């Protein structure tokens, strides 16, 4: 359905659609019309006009997310369009804003905020070329260094470097762009564009490089820290990180797989875990915590009880939690505030059914996202699950891939899900009866596609028909075979893939060397 446009917005579109005319006329445009023209130019992907608008920006702030979000003149939110043409024009326009005017007195711009962009799977822009978080990090760093080179090469415009603009950005660093970003951060005090890192993600990075660059980001400003794939951070390294760097504003923390492994704990390790919990307790703003694929059996209370603020998001998927862990979560002050919960990889119905439903009951008034993948939920558990979910009236997303449910059980469950008023996204498993009888759960990668595809398609159609008959066209039901979309992984998958292959090769070489020593 088309979004209504005001006459002002229609006029703005007409103005910017002729790029040559618009660029020549900008000097006569009222300052308060620049935001309107920017959104119209972005919608029409008029890169040259966007560049000139930013180059001549007359206002104190330039907040991309706010400018592209819902506005009175055009309510459609364009902040999920990470169009390469438009974003490159924004950033090069910002560089030229610094370079191309003789007097800094005429420049009012103080803050640029790039954090409002949303990286999504389906791009609606015509060019279909995206500039993701990694590429935005790369380009901004490159432009900052270009400005410093300009200063070294010419003294024609010393006033250029009296300008100081804070650029708020979510940085994404891997081995491939590390050197460039590190140089830009190291020299940011000399540059008119001051990179201010609000959120930091690193993948595929040596631990020594991570420790170096995280200090350059000014951690006192950091609100979100994601240490994800192929960063070999273990518990002792995390303790060093928290002892050496303070994160007073940190709201969200994601740790890599296997950060914790209680199966090989010593008495010293137990104290290290307590120290980490106390350090997280000092992060008074922390409300989101993800530590999937660690082994935390019996230690959740030690880690979470020092926290001063209740968690709103908790991901403890595949963490080998026991009954005591779930019982602590169910009775903790976190339970009443959890808006997103991931308990994937835990056999919830066999190991701790009563405390799980207690946890679900306590979080139900606020719970928006629930993920229960590979939890051995069977047909006999569906009625109990329905009872638990019936209180979750604010639930928007439910993901339960990898569970051995029959097509009949899925239909029963879907009939109930239609009653949840704001549920929008459901990720359901391939029905058990679509697989050969010798398949065991959890299904490994080798057997994932050994199912009757025609039967699956028929069942999927029947499930969508249930939604249609209940007038729930607003609900999307799907089976993403390779997991939910991750924009960061998608953008850097070639680099991560190459790294995994090299890692596998190194492991084989070490194994071969060991065999040769014994032979």
UniProtKB/TrEMBL annotation:
Question: Which terms are listed as keywords in the entry?
Answer: Leucine-rich repeat, Repeat
Residue runs in coiled coils:
none
Gene Ontology terms: cellular component: cytoplasm
Alphabetical list of InterPro entries matching this protein: LRR_dom_sf, LRRC14/PRAME
Cited PANTHER family: LEUCINE-RICH REPEAT-CONTAINING PROTEIN 14B, SIMILAR TO PREFERENTIALLY EXPRESSED ANTIGEN IN MELANOMA-LIKE 3
| Protein family per UniProt | Belongs to the PRAME family. LRRC14 subfamily.
The protein in question is named Leucine-rich repeat-containing protein 14B
Transport in keyword set: no
- Keyword Repeat set for record: yes
């Amino acid at each position: 359905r088309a979004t209504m446009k005001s006459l002002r917005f229609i006029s703005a579109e007409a103005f910017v659609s002729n790029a040559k005319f618009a660029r020549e006329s900008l000097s006569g445009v009222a300052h308060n019309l620049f935001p309107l023209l920017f959104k119209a130019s972005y919608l029409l992907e008029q890169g040259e006009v966007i560049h000139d608008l930013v180059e001549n920006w007359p206002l104190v702030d330039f907040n991309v997310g706010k400018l592209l979000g819902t506005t009175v003149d055009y309510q459609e939110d364009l902040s999920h369009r990470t169009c390469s043409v438009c974003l490159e024009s924004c950033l090069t326009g910002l560089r030229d804003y610094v370079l191309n005017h003789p007097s800094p007195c005429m420049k009012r711009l103080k803050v640029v905020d790039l954090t409002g962009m949303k990286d999504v799977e389906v791009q609606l822009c015509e060019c279909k070329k995206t500039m993701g978080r990694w590429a935005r990090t790369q380009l901004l760093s490159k432009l900052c260094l270009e400005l410093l080179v300009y200063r070294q090469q010419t003294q024609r415009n010393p006033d250029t470097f009296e300008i100081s603009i804070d650029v708020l950005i979510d940085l994404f660093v891997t081995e491939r762009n590390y050197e460039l970003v590190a140089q830009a951060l190291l020299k940011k005090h000399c540059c008119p564009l001051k990179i201010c890192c609000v959120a930091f993600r690193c993948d595929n990075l040596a631990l020594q490089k991570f420790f170096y660059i995280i200090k350059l980001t000014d951690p006192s400003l950091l609100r979100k820290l994601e240490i994800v794939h192929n960063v070999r951070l273990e518990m002792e390294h995390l303790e060093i990180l928290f002892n050496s760097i303070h994160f007073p504003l940190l709201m969200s923390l994601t740790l890599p797989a296997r950060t914790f492994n209680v199966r090989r704990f010593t008495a010293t390790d137990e104290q290290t875990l307590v120290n980490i919990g106390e350090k997280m307790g000092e992060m008074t703003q922390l409300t989101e915590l993800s530590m999937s694929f660690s082994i935390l059996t019996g230690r959740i209370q030690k880690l979470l009880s020092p926290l001063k603020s209740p968690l709103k998001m908790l991901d403890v998927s595949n963490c080998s939690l026991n009954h005591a862990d779930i019982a602590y979560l169910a009775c903790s002050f976190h339970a009443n505030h959890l808006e997103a919960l991931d308990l994937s990889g835990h056999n919830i119905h066999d190991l701790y059914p009563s405390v799980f439903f207690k946890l679900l009951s306590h979080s139900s008034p606020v719970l928006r996202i629930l993920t229960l993948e590979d939890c051995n939920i069977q047909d006999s558990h569906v009625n109990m699950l329905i009872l638990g979910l019936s209180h979750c009236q604010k639930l928007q997303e439910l993901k339960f891939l990898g569970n051995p449910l029959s097509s009949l059980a899925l239909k029963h469950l879907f009939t109930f899900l239609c009653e949840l008023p704001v549920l929008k996204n459901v990720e359901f498993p391939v029905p058990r009866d679509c697989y050969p009888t010798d398949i065991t759960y959890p299904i490994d990668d080798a057997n994932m596609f050994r199912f009757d595809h025609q039967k699956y398609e028929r069942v999927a159609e029947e499930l969508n028909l249930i939604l249609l008959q209940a007038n729930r066209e607003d609900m999307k039901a799907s089976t993403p075979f390779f997991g939910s979309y991750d924009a960061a992984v998608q953008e850097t998958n070639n680099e991560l893939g190459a790294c995994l292959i090299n890692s596998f090769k190194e492991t084989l070489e070490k194994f071969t060397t060991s065999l040769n020593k014994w032979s």
